[in-house]
Amino acid sequence: MDNVERKWKCAKCGAELVPTRIVFQYMGRSFGYEVPACPNCGDAFISEDLAKGKMAEVESLMEDK
Ligand SMILES: [Zn+2]
Q: How far is the CA of 37 from the centre of ligand 1 (A)?
């Protein structure tokens, strides 16, 4: 019963989140990324780990220059 695919639900309206492409703005650059977002109210679920990982990625990209 715990094997069911994990589904995220919107905290506001309870709708099932769907993968949606959003754009991160960080350090003057923008990056497209797919995250679970609510089709009703547009709330995107971005975990802290994802945000941190993304920022670390951006920072390493900038250092490569
Ligand atoms: Zn919602």
A: 8
